[in-house]
Specification:
- Helix content is about 30%, strand content about 20%.
- The chain has helices at about 20-25, 30-45, 90-100, 105-115, 125-140, 160-170, 230-235, 235-245, 250-265; strands at about 5-10, 65-70, 75-85, 105, 175-180, 185-195, 215, 220-225, 270-275, 280-285, 290-295, 305, 310.
- It has an 8-stranded mixed sheet with strand order 4-3-2-6-5-1-11-12. A 5-stranded mixed sheet has the order 7-8-9-10-13, with helices on one face.
- The structure holds glycine.
């Protein structure tokens, strides 16, 4: 890794939350501390309906969170999936990385671990998220007939999950990606999400899957993803983008090629990536829109908006 000034980058929803992490980097803090600190602020933001507190709930009205963190110096990583009742899943993921021999804990096991580590349980469903769930029920579920179960609890062959999910995937994914490099040249990448709005309970996207939604390696750089997670899982997208850089592509070429790979699946749903290379260059890309990301280094007064690329099908 070339010597670069410590900095952080983040997705659109991370902008002002980079101040906290950058301040830590300025004071000599580690990339892991910086990523965790900024991600926690996004998780606590009730206005972000795709991450943490205020995240839109699953099909049964429960907020279910996923997160992962990776240390590019050691390739250690931790992740949690389908966690209910704990807001700072990025910190729980970090604990999995640092305190356990495991990489991933999910569902009730992850919640048990969080409790054992002293995290406090809390309600994550805001009034706004509840209202959006209720309007979803009205729009998609309709009123069940007398004595009939509503369709969203009849998990039978007529459920039409695939078609229903396709309808939702246009605008129903959000996630935060934050990547940092510290004074030692160590890179850390973190991802946190409430996943697809109204997802099937237990559904995991790319965010907690290392290699799919998150990957970093000090030698080559880092990448993280947002969008329809199933597509990133199928392509091991974050790892693939880092591999493209490892094999000689520029960061721009690597991100563009990753988005092209997604387009070649010809599936519904958007994909976006955020990346840094081993020289400190940054990039973002999207299959669906003009892409931007936020950059802030230890000399910055405020986060700088950087343009990415749009790779159309
Ligand atoms: N990319 C977030 C998700 O699919 O859950």
């Amino acid at each position: 890794m070339a010597k670069v000034k410590p900095f952080m980058i983040g997705t659109k929803n991370a902008g002002k939350f980079l101040y906290a992490g950058t301040e830590m980097l300025r004071n000599g803090g580690s990339a892991i501390d910086a990523v965790e600190a900024s991600t926690k602020l996004v998780e606590a933001n009730p206005k972000d309906d795709s991450v943490g507190y205020g995240g839109v709930p699953n099909l049964l009205g429960k907020v279910e969170l996923d997160a992962s963190i990776m240390d590019g110096g050691t390739l250690r990583t931790g992740s949690v999936g389908a966690v209910k009742g704990y807001i700072h899943v990025i910190s729980i993921a970090r604990m999995v990385m640092e305190k356990t021999p495991h990489v991933m804990l999910v569902g009730s096991g992850a919640e048990l671990f969080a409790k054992a580590m002293g995290f406090k349980k809390q309600n994550l469903l805001t009034k706004e998220a509840k209202a959006s769930y209720q309007s979803f029920l009205k729009r998609y579920a309709g009123q069940p007939k007398e004595g009939e179960k509503p369709w969203y609890v009849k998990y039978d062959v007529d459920f039409g999950l695939r078609e229903w999910y396709d309808k939702l995937t246009e605008k129903q994914h959000g996630t935060v990606n934050i990547i940092a490099i510290d004074k030692n040249g160590d890179i850390c990448s973190g991802v946190s999400t409430s996943g697809t709005a109204f997802k099937f309970p237990g559904r995991l996207g790319d965010s907690p899957i290392i290699g799919a939604g998150n990957y970093c390696d000090n030698r080559f750089g880092a990448a993280a993803c947002t969008g329809r997670g199933e597509l990133a899982i199928r392509l091991s997208l974050a790892r693939t983008i880092v591999s493209y850089m490892e094999n000689g592509m520029t960061i721009r070429e690597a991100c563009a090629r990753g988005m092209k790979d997604i387009n070649e699946l010809h599936e519904k749903g958007d994909m976006n990536c955020l990346a840094m290379d081993n020289k400190g260059n940054t990039m973002s890309a999207s299959t669906a829109r003009e892409s931007i990301h936020w950059y802030m280094d230890t000399d910055s007064k405020e986060p700088e908006e950087r343009k990415g690329i749009w790779i159309k099908e």
